[in-house]
Amino acid sequence: MRANVRLRGRCMDAMGAVASGARRPKSVTPSTPNPTSPRREQLFLLGRIVATPGALELLRRTATIPEVLLMRHVTGDWGDIGAEDAQENDLSLQAGFRLMSVYKLPLVAAVVADMDQSCTGPVQHPIWLITEADRSATTFLLPEEY
Fold it and tell me: What confidence tens digit (pLDDT) does each residue in 106-117 have?
């Protein structure tokens, strides 16, 4: 089951337009640019932005601003995926296929303590962003919810 991501009171795309796909992409500068990705303009439409309950909870628990991840995704910063998957996304962008980004979100110490885990380093949990081939929707979800 998917839940709407409420951004500024209504479903919106990364450019601040109602996520109907009616607005054309325009140049943007992502809040956290990837130094290996020189692209800075919106490369595709996001469509309707939705999220699974688990993804919404992870965003809340990590104090992650969804718009930051949307900006990275829509400008071609695919996040924590391998070179082969990044190349596949680049080809999918040209051919109009589905696009996927993976971002590892750091869990804060209080969250890790709640999980009753002992760890030696920072704990991160991946979140996926998938934009459908027809650009009708972009979904935030956890790998285990796929």
Answer: 987 655 455 555
